[in-house]
Sequence to fold (90 residues):
Amino acid sequence: MSQAISNQTELLVNNDFSSFLELYDEHGENLLLYAFLTLRDEAKARIAVRSAFVKLWQHPDRLLQGRSVYSVLFSEVKVMTYLLKTSDRR
Fold:
């Protein structure tokens, strides 16, 4: 694991909010684009991305476990977009 990833993980586990905001600035737009292209609904895309970041903030130690922050966030957004998309079909 690189030093930068290790440092980000440590800061998240220690509830460093400024580090969390940096992560949002760094990854939020790409995640939102993916969610929007999948869902074709901006409001639902924002819900998916927001949900991923909230989950990361609440449980960084459980979610990261040696994985990069982006891979965790992307996985969470992918799951949320699937759930939101399938809930529309009912």
